[in-house]
Specification:
Elements lengths: L1 H35 L7 E7 L6 H13 L5 E7 L15 H13 L9 E4 L3 E4 L3 H11 L7 E10 L2 E9 L5 E15 L9 E15 L4 E7 L9 E10 L4 E10 L1
Parallel strand pairs: 1-2
Antiparallel strand pairs: 1-3, 3-4, 5-6, 6-9, 7-8, 7-10, 10-11
Keywords: Signal
Protein name: DUF1223 domain-containing protein
InterPro entries: DUF1223, Thioredoxin-like_sf
Length: about 260
């Protein structure tokens, strides 16, 4: 009887030790994962879908410009000019059909019925009317506290002969993620002759004039992209590189000033 009791005690002890060991392994695994996912400096990427042909857009353009002028290095401002207002009579020189398609992909993700302007998308995760300053301030505050899942560093940036060359390195899990490389025109003033904004002079800023994608097959590499003819010699450009997931969440961002 005593042997049976001793055997039972020993068996229970062994099971307890094994269970404790498994639990510790799981805790350690979670901790390792936490160090990879959500362990880098917060970023706030603001993508405004806008148009020179939209009478509601200038106020959103001005709000995004103000955010940029506040000078937070962790905030990235982008204006995508869509083409579906061009039919009114004024063809926005910065508009591209693929930008409207990009907006449609976001709205499909958000289960939003259709595209609209001005629409502001934050880190690829939520959207609101781009002229809504209270929502903008809340987004800057909220996303400014959330750790990013990745970190990207840029080096050996060279802009000459209408080409931009750069090296990059991405930290964190890059599974099912891509690079989005952007050339952003700082500012351009245009006199609008037709459409909803006819006879107005608009100053647009943060204008996406070049965009290309690259698969993250390796955590580091180099990229070359052309400077569009739309950019005039001497105009101020910004290089912005994003990391985005296969669900279009933006998980890292970096930027550098250039000269066109």
């Amino acid at each position: 009887m005593k042997r049976t009791i001793v055997f039972t005690i020993v068996l229970v002890a062994l099971i307890t030790v094994a269970f404790t060991s498994i639990s510790a392994d799981k805790t350690e695994a979670v901790s390792d994962n936490d160090r990879i996912e959500g362990s880098y400096e917060p970023i706030v990427v603001l993508e405004l879908f806008t148009s020179q042909g939209c009478s509601s857009c200038p106020s959103a353009d001005a709000l995004l410009k103000r955010v940029k002028q506040e000078g937070n290095d962790r905030v990235f401002t982008l204006s995508y000019h869509v083409d579906y207002w061009n039919y009114i009579g004024w063809e926005d020189p910065f508009s591209k059909p693929r930008f409207a398609k990009k907006q449609g992909i976001y709205n499909h993700k958000f289960r939003n019925r259709s595209n609209y302007t001005p629409q502001l998308v934050v880190n690829g995760m939520e959207h609101f009317v781009g002229s809504n300053s209270s929502r903008m301030n809340a987004a800057l505050k909220d996303y400014g506290k959330k750790k990013a899942a990745n970190k990207i560093s840029l080096s050996h940036i060279n802009a000459e002969k209408r080409k931009v060359k750069l090296n990059y390195e991405v930290l964190g899990d890059t599974t099912d993620k891509m690079l989005r490389i952007l050339l952003v025109l700082d500012e351009r003033t245009t006199h609008i002759k037709r459409g909803e904004n006819r006879n107005r002079t608009l100053t647009n800023s943060n204008i996406v004039v070049g965009e290309q994608f690259a698969e993250l097959t390796d955590s580091s590499g180099s990229i070359t992209m052309p400077v569009p003819d739309l950019v005039k010699p001497g105009e101020k450009l910004e290089l912005i590189v994003l990391v985005e997931s296969d669900t279009y969440d933006i998980t890292a961002a970096a930027k550098s000033e250039l000269k066109g």
